[in-house]
Amino acid sequence: MMSVKSLAESLNLTTIPSTYTFINNPRDLETVDLDNPDEQIPIIDFSLLYSSNPHQRSKVISDLGKACEDWGFFMVINHGVPKEVMDSIIEGCRGFFNLSEEEKLEFKGKQVSDPIRYGTSFHASAEEVFFWRDFLKVIVHPQFHPVNKPPGFSEVCFDYCKKTEKLTQKLLEGISESLGLEASYIDKAMNVECGLRYLAANLYPPCPQPEIAMGMPPHSDIGLLTTLIHNGIDGLQIQHNGKWVNVNTIPNSILFNIGDHLEILSNGKYKSVVHRAVVNNRATRISVAIANGPSLETVVSPAPKLVDNEAHPPAFTGIKYKDYFQIQQANKLHRKSCLDSLRI
Questions:
Q1: What is the dihedral of CA 169, 171, 172, 174, to 10 degrees?
Q2: What is the DSSP string of 244-273?
Q3: Average pLDDT in the 180-204 region?
Q4: Distances from the Cα of 306 to the Cαs of 142, 310, 311, 339, in angstroms?
Q5: For residue 54, cis peptide bond before it (omega within 30 degrees of 0)
Q6: Residue 76: which H helix or E strand, with range?
Q7: 297 exposed, middle or buried (CB, 10 Å; 0-12, 13-18, 19+)?
Q8: What share of the chain is helix, strand, coil (3-state, %, to 5)?
Q9: More confident residue, 97 or 51
Q10: Signal sequence: where (predicted)?
Q11: 46 three-state secondary structure
Q12: What was the pLDDT predicted at 57?
């Protein structure tokens, strides 16, 4: 199957092939006014999690919990990841997608569990309608798998992943405390030290008919927390209060969102939120996500302290992370269908 990048660069492309025509559900067509101050994603000042002032620290943990409960998405500022590191990973991904088709196909995986996998759409062999997106997925933890093209790309990936690892760990501690659990609960219960982390680089080229194409369909994310940065081209929309909200991030901030397994662990208190990627006819969008999950052998179920058989009965059946990962990656993306199958 031809990459979307190659298709978009075809001479005189004015219409997209019918296989890329995405039919929206009518309820997916309404978006929120971008200037509505009540529809802005929460901002978390990461530096306050280290504050020696107990009031400041308590407030940021409360704000973090409220963001997880009300939005499922939040922007992190003062996070300590240097701008040049963030710029380097974006440019490294651009360099990878600019490789020749032959070179990129060297990384075409055969199985969803392959440590390095280049492809287009989401799961092209299972889809009837394709998405306007090329991707590179790399497992970066517990073992880092280097991508040896273009030169220097592997080193840039490793640096960015290490710089965001501590940030994610500290946020999980704050989220754990916001749930009334010990700071280390999520880390220990989910065996995050051996957790599966994979980097997903996404390329959304300009599309001549963006109104009938889709970069990524409405879906929720696997894992505990997803880390996301992009090249300054908007395209992410999240569902909030029944409407679609355009995500406008602060420059140099890092976006985080709740994954399905944090919803399971919190017994439904914190929700993984349905989101999508839309495309445009002007500029290429590049995003870099890191899905931070439990270890593959961890059985994820609601935290016992958050379960009360009368007031708060268990909302989900437990499932091994490896099994959930295989199911989600091998099937069509459709809202929260994978998570919904575990609801009690």
A1: 130
A2: EEE--PPTT-EEEEE-HHHHHHTTTSS---
A3: 96
A4: 29, 12, 10, 19
A5: no
A6: strand 73-77
A7: exposed
A8: 35, 20, 45
A9: 97
A10: none
A11: helix
A12: 93
Opening angle at CA 242, ends 238 and 243, nearest 5: 55
What single-letter amino acid sits at 256?
F
Q: What is the pLDDT of residue 327?
A: 81
Q: Could you tell me which residues come within 8 angstroms of residue 324 by beta carbon, excluding any fewer than 6 positions away?
A: 222, 260, 261, 300, 338
Amino acid at 312: H
**Phi, psi dihedrals of residue 215, rounded to the nearest 5°:** -75, -50
CATH 3.50.50.60 fits 4-8+50-340, yes or no: no
Q: Is the pLDDT of residue 228 over 90?
A: yes
What's the order of all strands across the beta sheet hosting 275-277? 216-219, 275-277, 236-240, 243-246
Residue 186, both tokens? 């999520």
Residue 343 host element (H or E)? none
The predicted model gives 163-192 an average pLDDT of 96
- 309 burial via Cβ count (<10 Å: 0-12, 13-18, 19+): exposed
Q: How many CA atoms lie within 13 A of 221 on its CB side?
A: 28
Residues 265-318: tens digit of each pLDDT? 999 999 999 999 999 999 999 999 999 999 999 999 999 999 987 888 999 999
Backbone φ and ψ of 165, nearest 5°: -65, -50
**254-to-78, 221, 223 alpha-carbon distances in Å:** 9, 16, 18
